[in-house]
Amino acid sequence: MLKSGLISPHYPARSLSTIALEHSECGCPSRSKMSFCIQLGIVILPLCCIRTLASRCFLSMSLRADYTEEGDITLGMINPIRATLTQALPTFSSYPTPRLCDLFVSELYKSVLALLFATKEVNNNPDLLPNITLGFQMYDSCFFEAASLQATIQVTSGGRKWIPNYHCGPQPIVPAIIGDISSSSLAIARLLGLWRLPQVSYITSHPSLSNKLEFPSFLRTTASAGSQPQALIELCKKLGWNWIGLVVSTIDYCLQGAIDFQKKAATNGICISFFETVSFGLTDPRMAGLVASINRSTARVIVLYCSPADVTMIFLEVLQQNLTGKVWVGIESWYTTPLTQYNKFWKLLNGSIGIAKSRKVLPNFSSFLQTLNPSAYPRMLSIWQFWETLFKCKGTADVWNNSILKPYDDNQTCTGLERIVTDDVTELHDPRSQAVYMAHNALYAIVHALHNLLFCKSDGSPFTRKFCADMKDIQPWQLLYYLKRVYFINTAGDEVSFDSHGDIYGYFDILNWHINGNKGQHENVGIFNEHINSSEKLYINESLIYWAGGQGKVPSSVCSLVCLPGYWKAPMKGRPVCCYDCKLCPEGTISNGTNYVACYVCPEDQWPNSRRSECIPKVIEFLSYEEPLGLVMALFSILFSIITLIVLYIFLKFRDTVVVKANNRNLSYLILLSLNFCFLCSLMFIGYPTRLTCTVRQFLFAITFSFCVSCILAKTIIVVIAFKATKPGSNLRVWLGLRTAILIVTISTSFQMIIILVWLARFPPFLEHNYHVLVGTILLECNEGSTVMFYCTLGYLSVLAVISFMVAFLARNLPDHFNEAKYITFSMLTFLSVWCTFIPAYLSTKGKYIVSVEIFAILMSSFGLLCCIFGPKCYIIILKPSMNTREYLASTSK
User: 3 exposed, middle or buried (CB, 10 Å; 0-12, 13-18, 19+)?
Assistant: First the structure.
């Protein structure tokens, strides 16, 4: 029976009979027999006819050489081993010749051997894929996209004759493919993504492959190129570099990485001094201009986001121009290549720094290499070329073709008995060890995913139909599900897993290149681990870094110097944000760190120091007893109080004399007592204010003064009444008693009491911390609560004083030997003068001096009353006692 799979999909419109007739010359059945068979639905085609169909009707093909290890499950491996040395353009006048791969490239061959080594490990491991043998089909991609695609189609089509999307024979079990390099991986990933067939690369770091919409089945065990810019950013931040130059190769890998680096730099406070591109084959004049631009730039750090070939060209021109004083920062594409071992570049590279994919050692891989023998793998791709390159010898046809081991004839002939001398230390320092490690991880990632798929339980299956895979029918999308979620500890003890983009987390070594004796070497000085969730993804031991010139400190590469505490960064117009002027913080603000973009205001209870670099507590100011002004005020208050008490004592002692009795001695006692309280209440204005003192002091001041002035008013009125009562027929004698004085004092003081009570009830004074009156000072003062009420009390005192003044002034010339009216007139004049002067002085002063002015007004006005009213009487009592007798009064009245 003719299987539908044997008919080419390129001929859908033609009948089977037509196809058979076209191939009758190869022994196909005749037309009549073919028609008969077609009618029966059965067609028997000789084998030669099928071969003719394949050779004449299908696409032309040239099978690629491969190396196969048989197994129950076969993986595809596409690796770059050889390159094309020469390739002529096809003329299409004859059958196109296949592309020849004739240049062996040894850099990545150890990674090919690592895949072979990993396969043997898996097959010897009873815990991974038990009772299942893992095999592979390995192809050489020749560093060429077309060859990679051809190998991909060949390994996924099955059989020895391949046609796109066509299987001729039993379907091989190729659940996944390992490979290839960057450009080829893009092409393979586009193709395999159509069928969701997993592809795991261990070399490719192209950032575009992280796009799962475009490349849904691609994963990799090497860090994406997108991780590298972040590592460089963290390196620059750690070393304090924010002004750098950037030189970029025009190849896609470097351009994309450099643009990503530039974007990340802009968000991390790093400025690019210049962005220059360079390409292989750049003319000398342009290269000279590029290096001249590097020399002119004030940036000391230059990041070379370039290929090794472009870096070589740049360094040659740098040597030509004798450019020095720059720190070169390298990326992994060139910093660990043989370029760094060229003696002529050592002077430039000395003290440079760069990043490279972290180097790991595979346990037992060195032992595998030491036991490696070409005769054990005679069909292994290019193993004889690897052997010749490694041992710098030439093998004979007998050795390579027949695997005949011969003794040494001379030192130029390979025998196959050579032994690779290596150990874990040399493997670690081999720049190619990273590819070996990642290739090993790639195969193990697929194996662990296969294990999880094949040995899953139906009741725990993640798939909608609740079934697991069969070894002979592995669906690529099922394997892709487990591969994206794979997690295992590899043989080196490291965790391996993929993120949502199919990438492993970036893990880079920070390397410092310097000359050690007569050789140059890389020194591992730190690591960058993107897997760490904290902000500190980069660790550097700066004490291990050697800088050019033997400097012990990190070279500076900034556009502007660091703004010290007390200054802020003022942007320069038209310059990048890293370029700025350092300006002193405005008055009342500080910056307590370096490179502040703005100054900030201190808390209300603090104030900037003289350098404006920190906030210091403000000085709390109040009129205290410790300072001279407060002490003097207190002393005068006590002194005047003592004087008042002395005067009171004198009046009490000489209370029966005519001078004391004149003009109501009881009122004199009350006036002296109130004046004493006036002097003492001024002490409540001195010292640390409290809420209680703020409330009481104004109350005592207002009441005592009102009482004092009321007594003086009563005394003055009684003088007038006494004079009027001496006239014949006067009825005023009844008002000369004590009741009149009490009535006047009570009424006059009551009005002030009402004002005070309203004040305390509605607008009570309170303690206030005033931060704004004096710079750098907290004024601890009593807020009056209501300025209107405060001036009402003063106004009422003034009204009483004015009335007293007017009455006393009118009675000053009354015929009385001891008439106090004229003394009261002077006392009220003094009282009013002091308090009229107090108001403008009170309004024009600040802080503790306001309190001082009020105390001064209290003391002076009180002392004025004391002196003017009681001074003359004390003079008579003490110094002129002869005048303080009735006889003297009688003699003068005659």
Answer: exposed
Tell me how far apart the alpha carbons of residues 485 and 816 are, in angstroms, rounded to a whole number: 120
Alpha carbon distance 148, 192 (integer Å): 12
CB 67 within 8 A of CB 380: yes
- DSSP bridge pairs for 233: none
Query: Which pair of structure tokens corresponds to residue 306?
Result: 């370039």
CA distances from 97 to 33, 61, 91 (A): 40, 10, 10
pLDDT digits over 548-578, tens only?
Answer: 866 678 999 989 888 899 999 999 888 888 8
Q: How far apart, in whole angstroms, are the C-alpha atoms of residue 370 and residue 395?
A: 19
User: Which stretch of DSSP H or E encloses residue 842?
Assistant: helix 821-844
Altogether, the residues listed in the chain come to a count of: 894
User: Under 8 Å CB-to-CB from 676, ≥6 apart: which residues?
Assistant: 641, 644, 645, 648
Amino acid at 116: L
Sign of CA dihedral 611, 612, 617, 623: positive
Task: List the structure tokens of 49.
Answer: 């006819």
Dist CA 883 CA 488 (whole Å): 122
Q: Do 317 and 287 meet the contact criterion of CB atoms below 8 Å apart?
A: yes
Question: Of 576, 675, 571, which is closest to residue 246 (Cα–Cα)?
Answer: 576
Cα–Cα distances (Å) from 468 to 72, 364, 445, 465, in that order, read: 17, 34, 19, 9
Distance CA 362, CA 441 (A): 10
Are 571 and 589 a contacting pair, CB within 8 Å?
no
* Residue from 73, 517, 510, 555 nearest 332 by CA: 510
**Long-range contacts made by residues 420-428, C-beta under 8 angstroms, separation at least 24?**
420/369, 420/370, 420/372, 420/390, 421/370, 422/366, 422/369, 422/370, 423/366, 424/361, 424/366, 426/366, 427/361, 427/362, 427/365, 427/366, 428/359, 428/360, 428/361
What is the pTM for the complete model shown?
0.60
pLDDT in tens, 289-315: 899 999 999 999 999 999 888 898 899
Strand partners, 606: 617
* Counts for the chain of helices (H) and strands (E), in that order: 28, 29
Q: What is the DSSP letter of 88?
A: P
Could you tell me if 348 and 315 are in contact, meaning their C-beta atoms sit under 8 angstroms apart? yes
Backbone angles phi, psi at 275, to 5 degrees: -130, 105
Tokens describing residue 371 = 């036991």
C-alpha 536/C-alpha 551 separation (Å) is 26
What are residue 489's phi and psi, to 5 degrees? -100, 120
Name which residue leads in pLDDT, 815 or 655: 655
